[in-house]
Amino acid sequence: MVKADPAFETLLDVNALRVACDAVLSAKNADLSEIRSALLPILKQASADAREQARLKLFDDGSGLLCANRISWIQDQLMSVIFDFARSKVYPDGMDDLAVTAVGGYGRGTLAPGSDIDLLFLLPPKASPIMHKAIEFILYLLWDIGFKVGHATRSVEECIRLSRSDMTIRTAVLESRFVCGNQDIVEELQSRFDSEVTTGTAPEFIAAKLAERDERHRKAGDSRYLVEPNVKEGKGGLRDLQTLFWIAKYNYHVRETADLVRLGVLSRHEWRLFLKADDFLWAVRCHMHYLTGKPEERLYFDIQPEIAKSLGYQPRPGLSAVERFMKHYFLVAKDVGDLTRIFSAALEDQQAKVVPGFGGMIGRFANRPRKISGASEFIDDRGRIALADPGVFKRDPMSIMRLFHVADLNGLEFHPDALKAVTRSLSLIDNDFRESEEANRIFLSILTSRKDPGFILRRMNEAGVLGRFMPEFGKIVSMMQFNMYHHYTVDEHLIRTVEVLSEIDTGRGEEMHPLASKLMPGIEDRQSLYVAVLLHDIAKGRQEDHSVAGAKVARKLCPRLGLSPKQTELVAWLIDQHLLMSMVAQTRDLHDRKTITDFADKVHSLERLKMLLILTVCDTRAVGPGVWNGWKGQLLRTLYYETELLLSGGFSEVSRKDRAKHAAEQLAAGLDGWSAKDQQTYTKLHYEPYLLSVDLEDQIRHAHFIREADKAGKALATTVRTHQFHAITEITVLSPDHPRLLSIIAGACAAAGANIVDAQIFTTSDGRALDTIVISREFPIDDDEMRRGATISKMIEDVLSGRKRLPEVIATRAKGKKKARPFPVQPDVRFSNVLSNKFTVIEIECLDRIGLLAEITAVLSDLSLDIHSARITTFGEKVIDTFYVTDLVGQKITSDNRQANVTNRLKAVMIDQPDELRDNMPSGIIAPPPRAPVPKRSRA
């Protein structure tokens, strides 16, 4: 049983529980079901009361490991009481040779509040039927109490035989712990297991456990820096510590982690680090189980604030309480990685002596150690860089930096022993080291390497070198941002950004990033670009805007790295403006000339434009899986080409009216084979905004679409086009114009599960609307996406025609969906009359939800505002939607009172879901006669 702290006995009065159970048999001739029914409330109440005491003590002392030990001890007592009752009162003649052992986490003497109870019932070679009935009696009681029980019933011989062929069973037996019954049979199992199974099989077991770990990491995301980590199974989580202990127990025959200090595997400091990490992770896990009331293992955003509160974290300037908690979590996960590396080094040294070619993954590296040309302090040990002798770093601290440089030059992995030595030598990286010209030159060479700088930087970060060499970087190590947009910690994001830049730089990103790949060879100053990419988020977590603060850091750090004053200012500018191009591309109307001229005024030069584009691509790609898509790439390309034209002096000076006339002539010429009458009719349908902002190819396609609808006599028609590379699907809607048309279309898309990213809104000269809605693509195959587009189009037509009511379809879609997570997104409405020469730009920012866009656009329509175009941008849980609007006579919204009224109405929608607004939404807009030919929404 668990070696319990005497204080554990206050959790449960075992003697009183035994007496209460024994009293159950005072009634004569009770059958088994009646006995179980009488025992159940007694045992259930005792378990609940004891576990509640364990919960209160967790909040009192904060120790997760103690909490897990307490719950395990409580479970031991319950098992013993149930077993002794069955042996003495129910089956007095058949249980003497039966034993109950704990396996799994329970076998280690640790249980989380929601953990399964894993049991191994050990039988003698010839088990009687009574033993099986007794086991059944015990299991039924445990299930009735409410425990999830994993169990196996085997003899010692079966355990030994199965352990040889099944690694899962072998691990379970390795962790088996006597709980109650016949202790002799448990000792026999453990003795035979040590002599018959573990002897000589350590390499096989270690290889299997490391392979299991790698597969587990792959399934959990293969990064210890995911912002919603799996505390149990994820990289740097509890299972990694448990894997270390399994291997230690199997290989070194130890019972406690403290024994690893005695054997020299871990230093005393590292052993204490192991205990601290174990205790912290157990605390997080126990709090998660208590908070959710279930065995939740993933630290979701929803529960992170509550866990932070339970653990006592407080906010600090620049960091919320939850961000401080998660930074601590990721630092612990990093410690677990350090311990894994240190342990692996010691293990490999031992195994290499007895198993030639063991090398971490057995046989992976077969060559003998050899010298590395020009680097006498290092050796190539089977494809990994290692130290020539243990004193290398002490004699010359600069060798720490050279280790990573030589590894990069020679394409070598790192020997675990070398990284362990680096971690233990971090104190040698002092101010003199940081200011050293050689150290900075080497670092810049690593950063701008044409091989794999991301890999080297990640190893430097894991070993602690990056944070020591650049204290500014050390401040953002393991820092998370509490939002759904960023998938990684800040340091991991920066390293991934460098990896994307390297991919583009070496020509491997041409298919995904054609423009950036085309521009990269012409970049004259690679150094500045790589430095800007690495440092662009270096000032996250400060009170000051991180772009502004980051530019200040760059001005201080770049000269130390050896950059010239001109380069330093370029890096500072890129960091200061690193969000500019993304925000303009995603939230502004790129067909509005004022957008381009304002952007060009900030960029000033083609070289800056090129570098800012590449930085923006790298930054977006490195945010997380699925964040980058072809649509964002197309927006950036459009912004780049329009700005390049202006900066190079190629922007047309021809009047708007003349350009529109020329576009109409091109459209007429493109309607090849049409009658002159049809050419004239369908060309005159469009106003200047349409002719100047829609590509000729799309104008021709729209003309065919409108003529076909007219021939079929359709007042309402839709057409779908997919764009595989851009990862979008266009749905074009032809309909009688209506003030709430965009609102109803947006609601229909929400009801169909489509995410709108852009909307082009035009009114024809005969009073119809021609709106193109751009939605995010869902399926990789065009046929599947076309079927999805058809389904969404059908939903739009049903809602517009009144066959379906919008409030009902949105309610159906929202039913069962989780409520918005508690992210700190303050609703905001911003007006600007300087971003466009013709329109007022209204930008809203708030927490996303189903149907939000429909409600926002309905409010704008209610307030008699004409929407010319809309940009819908989602950053995780947050939306930034931009609307280009005028009043009904085509004028900007300049009145302060009117702006205030619009702001108040919009904020009411952004904060609450206005039921009366949805109830008043029209069921359909198709009127029998066509509307008068009044150009309503985009003529101004």
The general outline is globular
First-to-last CA distance: 82 Å
Number of DSSP-assigned strands: 16
> For the residues shown, what is the average pLDDT?
86
Structural class estimated from helices and strands: alpha+beta
Oligomer, anyone? single chain
Low-confidence stretches: 354-366, 914-918, 927-940
Instruction: Record the strand order, biggest sheet.
Output: 9-10-12-11-15-16-14-13
What is the radius of gyration?
34 Å
* Strand fraction: 5-15%
The number of helical elements comes to: 41
Total domains: 4
Q: How would a textbook summarize the main sheet?
A: 8 strands, antiparallel
Percent of residues in helices comes to 40-55%
EC number: 2.7.7.59, 3.1.4.-
Pfam families: ACT_ACR9_3rd, GlnD_UR_UTase, HD, NTP_transf_2
GO biological process, one term: regulation of nitrogen utilization
Domain ACT: 730-811, 841-920
Write a structural description.
- The longest helix has 34 residues, at 321-354.
- The radius of gyration is 34 Å and the shape is globular.
- β2 (117-123), α5 (129-145) and β3 form a beta-alpha-beta unit.
- The chain has an eight-stranded antiparallel beta sheet, with helices on both faces.
- α23 packs across α30 and α26 (546-561) packs antiparallel against α27.
- It is built from 41 helices and 16 strands.
- With 940 residues, the chain is α+β, with helices and mostly antiparallel strands.
- The chain folds into four domains: 6-199, Beta Polymerase, domain 2; 204-354, Nucleotidyltransferases  domain 2 (Four Helix Bundle (Hemerythrin (Met), subunit A)), CATH 1.20.120; 470-647; 715-919, no CATH class.
- Pfam families: ACT_ACR9_3rd (PF24931), GlnD_UR_UTase (PF08335), HD (PF01966), NTP_transf_2 (PF01909).
- This is Bifunctional uridylyltransferase/uridylyl-removing enzyme.
- Residues 490-606 form the HD domain.
